[in-house]
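[SOLVED] Need 3D model of a two-part complex

Original post:
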Amino acid sequence: KNEVEQSPQNLTAQEGEFITINCSYSVGISALHWLQQHPGGGIVSLFMLSSGKKKHGRLIATINIQEKHSSLHITASHPRDSAVYICAVKGNTDKLIFGTGTRLQVFP
Amino acid sequence: NAGVMQNPRHLVRRRGQEARLRCSPMKGHSHVYWYRQLPEEGLKFMVYLQKENIIDESGMPKERFSAEFPKEGPSILRIQQVVRGDSAAYFCASSVGGYNEQFFGPGTRLTVL
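Solution:
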């Protein structure tokens, strides 16, 4: 079993829909990252959080440390949001442990 | 303030050649991380370096791979005698400190023929 699990693996949505991507982890962590990767592209850090909730534009990230669970929400989704979204956790060491990613496609 | 820079963006090597991948961290960042993304797989940690020191190389293959981050200049990931299985995207990230947010470079896509 992977230390970081994401669901769903693949997600399709119509433009304007509210989207939720989930991340569960089995190790103790100091922080959790949400990353975005476009096909053939680089990786953009969306959020780093260790508790509570963060919001940036149409993106919201929440984390529940007790339940070892985080969610990434996208409000009013747009085709340009189509990408792979990756959850990564930082445990007791400084290296990141990655989930396998959620591939999101938003259709107009 | 430029972001994390990696070069080359694409690198083609024949089996048995050497590959050198460069990473220049963001200004003010002294911590560098290298990650590998094999085709259709997730990202995996390789090595974590601070200036002139390797802090954690637990994800680095024992043979053919080495990394350095000299006092001056970029961090270098070196792969000797490349094999087809080394074909992957190699990402570098940098941070101010070990517990700070990591910022990623655009990656180097290595293809071994």
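Edit: Chain A has a mean pLDDT of 93.
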